[in-house]
Amino acid sequence: MTIHCVNPLEEAGWDEALAPLPGSAIFHGAAWTRVIQDTYAYRPFSFLGGAAGEPRSILSVMEVDSPLTGKRGVSLPFTDECEPPGADADSFPGLFRDALDCARRRGWRYLEVRGGKTFLPKRRPRPVTTATDLTCATESRRSIAG
Length: 146
Hints:
By secondary structure, the chain is an alpha+beta fold. It has one domain (3-121): 3-Layer(aba) Sandwich (Aminopeptidase). The protein contains 4 helices and 5 strands; from the N terminus they run βααβββαβα. It is globular, with a radius of gyration of 20 Å.
């Protein structure tokens, strides 16, 4: 699948191309993107899977540049979780890979994606050791009791 990176505010017919995709929401549209860009000066990037002008899947990202947290990519700011429109197990890894390439080129500290997690390879969690926590809890109970 071909991936294109575009600024949705510069794409004629963005909302019309987005509308038929499963999972499209107000947060992916041009109006929301314009509000976020004008209000917070975030820079929009949209990674499109499929032919130019006829996307089959989209990963929308905003570049956030903060003096406190540095430069990073967020998909999507001001949402708790927002699945990428049209994304599936075949298309999302390519969208995500291109977003990571963009992150490296632009010097982002990290890329935060709030959706699409079900399409990424599963990673084995690291074992968590709670012995220290249990020891502290035991010591606290002893000092309270005694």
